[in-house]
Structures are given as C-alpha cells and as structure tokens.
Design a protein that fits this description.
Strand content of chain B: over 45%
Largest sheet of chain A: 6 strands, mixed
Number of strands of chain A: 11
Structural class of chain A: mainly beta
Order of helices and strands of chain A: EEEEEEEEEEE
Number of strands of chain B: 11
Largest interface: A-B, 20 and 20 residues
Oligomer: heterodimer
Structural class of chain B: mainly beta
C-alpha cells in the first residue's frame, strides 16, 4: 500500500533557527515528490517539486532533498521567520500505470516563536 | 494574473441536502483537480478534470461528482450530505493534464454539515 509518513507531527522553534522536516514514502513506482506550505485557512502553496533524478532543490530559504534509494525526503528551513508558521505537506505522485496517483502525508505543523 | 478562485468560501448545509461548489482556474489553465481536507484524514484527492473530461478519480463514493465547462471552470457536487462530509474543499489548477504538473490551489470552500 502506498504511504507517505511525515515527522515530526509538530515542531516549535525560535525565530532565526533552522529546522528540518522529514518525509518517508513507500509509493511505487515513483514519479515525483512535492512539498507544500499551507497557512491556516488557505490553500497549499507549492515549495518544490522533485523528480527521481533530482537530489536537491531550493526555493529561497527552503531546501528539499530527495534520496530515491532510501525513499526519504527532507525539507530544510533556514533562518526561520514568523511567517514560516504553517503546515508542511509532503505529496508523492506515482508513475507507470498509476500515473498521477497522489499519496499525501499528514503534514508537519511548524510554529515559529519570536 | 488572478489566482484560483472558489465560491462560496463558507457554506452550512443540513444532512441529506446537496451542495455545489465552484472553482475558476487561473487563466489559461486547463486542468482542475479537487481535494477534500479534514483534520483526521488530511488531504485526499477527489478527481481531476481536463478538457471537460474526468481524467483521474480518487476513492470517494458516487455522491461526489464534478464537471468541467468549456471555459475550464469546474463545479463539484455532493449529494445526500453526511456529517462526515464537513471539510475544506480545495481545488487546484494546472496548465496541462496530469497530476504531476505544478498545481496552484485556491483558498478552499469550508463546508459544514449539521
């Protein structure tokens, strides 16, 4: 069964600190992996999209890594800001005959305190 | 360029009623996908429409249906509402078909079933 597990479920950090969110998946065959940021009461916003051949992708202070061998991804946030407080969702898209089938993680709720 | 818009933003319905939600994609985008988000289940894919045709469908009962018009606008209908249908319904648009493409989400419609 395709699954995406994210850890931790929630995280509290101080403004200015760095943090790393984890995503482990068992989706097969793999097509791509996306990280979304969702502010409370709003729709998700795409941060990065990574295919099988990509190891690292950055978007400003956000850097995602992908290890297709271990089926793990991480999202690193540098020099956190109050506006980073949100839910971060990992989504894996399947390939092959299951093309486009999406499996969602439950998300990590990040709270940044001043 | 205007983003994805969804109407209404909030809705309260009674069990047994039906509801229709609307989504207008970003200008030029031809694919619209719908998602249900609840605290317990997280984000779940409902269906995707491209060129007025349903291209992908998630694991939801037949009470959930949708359609897409020639201008790419989409509607989602839920008949015989149940308490468990209370959720945030999100739509996302992308340039082309296939859920592997970059998707842009709307703000969602918050449906409450009493």
């Amino acid at each position: 069964k395709n699954q995406v597990e994210q850890s931790p479920q929630s995280l509290i950090i101080l403004e200015g600190k760095n943090c790393t969110l984890q995503c482990n998946y068992t989706v097969s065959p793999f097509s791509n992996l996306r990280w979304y940021k969702q502010d409370t009461g709003r729709g998700p916003v795409s941060l990065t999209i990574m295919t099988f051949s990509e190891n690292t992708k950055s978007n400003g202070r956000y850097t995602a890594t992908l290890d297709a061998d271990t089926k793990q991804s991480s999202l690193h946030i540098t020099a956190s800001q109050l506006s980073d407080s949100a839910s971060y969702i990992c989504v894996v898209s399947a390939g092959g005959t299951s093309y486009g089938k999406l499996t969602f993680g439950q998300g990590t709720i990040l709270t940044v305190h001043p | 360029k205007a983003g994805v818009t969804q109407t209404p933003r909030y809705l309260i319905k009674t069990r047994g009623q039906q509801v229709t939600l609307s989504c207008s994609p970003i200008s030029g985008h031809r694919s619209v996908s719908w998602y249900q988000q609840t605290p317990g289940q997280g984000l779940q894919f409902l269906f995707e429409y491209f060129s007025e045709t349903q291209r992908n469908k998630g694991n939801f009962p037949g009470r959930f249906s949708g359609r897409q018009f020639s201008n790419s606008r989409s509607e989602m209908n839920v008949s015989t509402l149940e308490l468990g249908d209370s959720a945030l319904y999100l739509c996302a648009s992308s340039l082309w078909e296939g859920l592997a493409d970059e998707q842009y989400f709307g703000p969602g419609t918050r449906l409450t079933v009493t």
